[in-house]
Amino acid sequence: MRKEERFRRVLAYFMETLPAPRTELSYINPYELAVAVMLSAQCTDKRVNQITPGFFGKYPDVGSLAAAREEDVFELIRICSYPNNKTRHLIGMARQVMAQYGGILPDTASELQKLPGIGRKTAHVLVSVLFNEPVLAVDTHVFRVSARIGLTTGAKTSLDAERQLVRYIPRDMIHKAHHWLILHGRYVCHARNPKCAECGIRSHCRFFSTGRIPPVRKR
Predict the structure, then answer these.
(1) Active site residue 176
(2) Given the residues 46, 61, 107, 121, the one annotated as active site
(3) Does the annotation mark 121 as catalytic?
(4) CATH superfamily of 30-131
(5) I need a labelling partner for 144 at 20 to 30 A (CA). Which of 34, 72, 150, 166 fits?
């Protein structure tokens, strides 16, 4: 199957079955989403959603977080992965937003990446979710699933995968593709023992047609 045809069929399936995908992180404003996405690195959304109610109860806005003590933030997020680094990044992000952006989170990926703890992936999640910007965040799920299906070929890095994906995904679908691939990886296309019998795109999948998982080592 040609790559263009595989993309067309896979995207048509996702568009039919999940036309309006959403993040599974709980949030009510850009500040809360930024905190949640920063906490979600190497951590499940379920765990993050357990942490954030108490966190936002104590730090409801960027100003209160900017004034926080590290030991207090650490105590609230200690069950999250890498709590020491995330504590420093969260407070550093809030202080920089207050000092340089008047307390308002930047609305472009380039400006967001100037903040502590926010790299390309996090910035792309934020602007795609908040503003439907046509950028694609490639995390572990997206990297693995896109290679396995056959949407990417030989990608060595997240940026390689991102460039291959956005080349074939229509601009108005790019902000949805991140969620489609994440959710497919989370609930169907597991790293081990993918649920091919339950998969709606198995007839379009390179792995299913060959029975062999392609290498997806990401650096």
Answers:
(1) no
(2) 121
(3) yes
(4) Hypothetical protein; domain 2 (1.10.340.30)
(5) 34
